[in-house]
Structures
1.
Amino acid sequence: MKAPVVFESMFGNTKEIAEAIAAGMGESIETESAGVGGAPVPPEGFDLLVIGGPTHQFGLSRPDSRKGAASEREEPLVSPGIGIR
Ligand SMILES: Cc1cc2nc3c(=O)[nH]c(=O)nc-3n(C[C@H](O)[C@H](O)[C@H](O)COP(=O)(O)O)c2cc1C
């Protein structure tokens, strides 16, 4: 069973959670965590997809909210490109 854990993350919080989930799942099934920019498009070739991202304005991020996140920190965003929306 293949089951990737795909995450979007601005500052690293969701990435940390995704890695913890993948570590737990990895004890019983084949899995690995991957940033949304490296996820397969279209999403296929696996049995289960675990996907998560940060809450932005009560929902999934949008281009403008990701720009807002980028302006909050000097460090580059963990997921600088597309979001999971
Ligand atoms: C632009 C923006 C909008 C946000 N909107 C919400 C929100 O509506 N509700 C909430 O609980 N947190 C909100 N947050 C906080 C993030 O969800 C929170 O900091 C999260 O841990 C960030 O995860 P990340 O480090 O993986 O990006 C917002 C953060 C940003 C940058």
2.
Amino acid sequence: MVELTPKEIVEELDKYIIGQKKAKKAVAIALRNRYRRNLLSEEFKEEIRPKNILMIGPTGVGKTEIARRLSKLVEAPFIKVEATKFTEVGYVGRDVDSMVRDLVEESIRMVKVEKIEEVYGKSEKIADEKILDILIPISSKRKSSNPLEALFSTKEEEDENSLKEKEHIMNKRNEIREKLLKGELENEVIEIEVEDNYNSTIELFSGFGMEEYNINMEDIFGDFLPKKTKKKKVTIKEARKIIGNQEAQKLIDMDEVTRLGIDKAQETGIIFIDEIDKIAGKDYSGGLDVSREGVQRDILPIIEGTTVMTKYGPVKTDHILFIAAGAFHVSKVSDLIPEIQGRFPIRVELENLTEENFVEILTKPKNAIIKQYQLLLSTEGVNLKFTEEAIKAIAKAAYITNEQSENIGARRLQTVLEKLLEDISFEASNLDNRDIVIDEAYVNKKLMTDIQQRDISKYIL
Ligand SMILES: Nc1ncnc2c1ncn2[C@@H]1O[C@H](COP(=O)(O)OP(=O)(O)OP(=O)(O)O)[C@@H](O)[C@H]1O
Ligand SMILES: [Mg+2]
């Protein structure tokens, strides 16, 4: 496990998220604390509970984005749930335990990938032999096509023939094996048998929420259901991957994987609960919605530390780190039930983004929006450039629009850019001049008149 220091975590997050220093710092410290805890003796380890984090901030300032980036960064099992999911009963609604089950599922998946990587070298070798078997079968006791020939040939002749044949096959195999291992046959197409994991009965049942009862049809029937296989034509390169994977699955010890997976989820798991503000406050809706307070009460034991039954066995939630986030526009943090508030000792407020932040968001992140548009248009041979002033003007336009209508944070940049580049996107394929420079004048022409006329309807999402 690569352990990043808080500083390194923040540096990584900086590549994608502008500003929000406090929030980044808080998540970085929380992660490091788990690592520190891990170094302690069992006795103390048990005593140290994670400090859950509550991120509070207006919409579109990076709450979810921080969580999303964090998950890619840490090699800890991580899942994100919307708190609102639990307020709907019946078909779409889920019970709160499902977040722990999902986390374990993810954790086991991660461990499995790790284990498979460990045995992959071995399984690849097996795969090569299997491919060789397909190319030149060993047991090709070539049945004589002419039954009379078999009838008249003497025993000795036959033995001699089969011996010769065997030798021939072995020579051929060695020759082909050499080519195979040298990678000279990668693009040849062969036919292989692949396991057809998709099983309609299982699909059918699980659609009815069997998971809620911790029942997995495959667990029950798995060994009885005949393993379906189907034939598939693939290149040797692909065949090695597919067969190698199948063989790797056989080589790993699934009991061990499950055990390690549960451990990993319990000790290092992170559950991100988004939109927690939506389950705060009094219930106005009534009707079919499960009451919000009810959802909070359901979630509480999980956050406080309980044991959830999963199909892999019991999972303790005591040391899982919870990060919750919400805009708290309508409701306030104090509208959450006190017990829940108490379980999130670390509060970080995310700041409203400034015009300067917008400039950076447009250009700095690895996946910056401007870069995205440039890439998209480059596929049509259009070379799109922005002057520095133009970028500033775009940021300004977004900022003003946020003030004049609803403040949707950085999401505004998307709508503004879409509007700005509408014509160019539309015409891209038949432009004469494919070097386009967007300058301040162009931005003002496209965006400012709109703003001045307060024709903001278009920006309202
Ligand atoms: N600080 C930031 N740096 C870079 N990009 C940002 C930042 N804040 C927001 N964005 C961009 O805006 C989009 C929306 O942000 P995000 O999903 O994090 O909002 P949020 O804070 O979770 O809002 P909500 O309360 O509505 O869920 C993201 O896709 C991201 O690209
Ligand atoms: Mg969000």
3.
Amino acid sequence: MIELRQLTKRYGTFTAVDRIDLTVGSGELFGFLGPNGAGKTTTLRMIAGILRPTSGSIRIAGVDLLQDPVAAKAKLGFIPDRPFIYEKLTGAEFLRFVAGLYDQAGPEVEHRARELLSLFDLEEWRDELVESYSHGMRQKLIISSAFVHRPAVIVVDEPMVGLDPKAARILKDLFREYTRRGHTIIFSTHTLEVAESLCDRVAIIAQGTIRAAGTMAELRRDLAEGEEGLERIFLRLTGENAARNLVDVLDA
Ligand SMILES: Nc1ncnc2c1ncn2[C@@H]1O[C@H](COP(=O)(O)OP(=O)(O)O)[C@@H](O)[C@H]1O
Ligand SMILES: [Mg+2]
């Protein structure tokens, strides 16, 4: 459903994403795991069609995103890390508006919007203006908007940040249920626990390149040195050794 070939993004002379190859299949819940600055947001924005790659190709459900952006984007929902919502719309209006962007309207959209708002405890807020929503409520509305038109592929940048535990739980269940029905979700996270508790498969990214990919069990089996746990593997692959080095220094 998502196919990246030699995907590259340079900002000036700086290479933020460096020749990434990745395939994510139908029904997969895929995690893009890496430290801050690894290139997750850059990659996801390219997949979502809002940032132009320097080189390489992207296919969404078999459609080339660069050659046929309208058809490819019609299959996508995107939840950015810093979302924008029109303040002067109500929650229900916003969901209707997003569905409209995908040429969807009518009773089915209204039904889905109602279900999503109720899932996230927003039903009493559906007719209130977004400007009166808290940060968490806005985020739940944005998440709902990626599901309201039922895209085949959903791309989510750091979905758990800013959610309270209950909303995070609901989101995880929604991700699982949505992929169980054959849709595809790719999301980024810098936390190992989120990736571990949620994903079918992950790719570990650092400094713009993929260091490893597979199921958590495969990563453990293939990459662990000795009794090394996942956290150590992750830190080693991403070169995030600062904390460990400090501990070593303090222990010495
Ligand atoms: N518009 C930009 N111009 C220059 N450098 C950028 C820009 N956006 C991101 N970068 C750099 O690209 C790298 C990857 O950033 P990003 O994709 O946001 O990483 P992540 O989401 O994994 O934290 C970082 O070093 C960041 O500073
Ligand atoms: Mg990011």
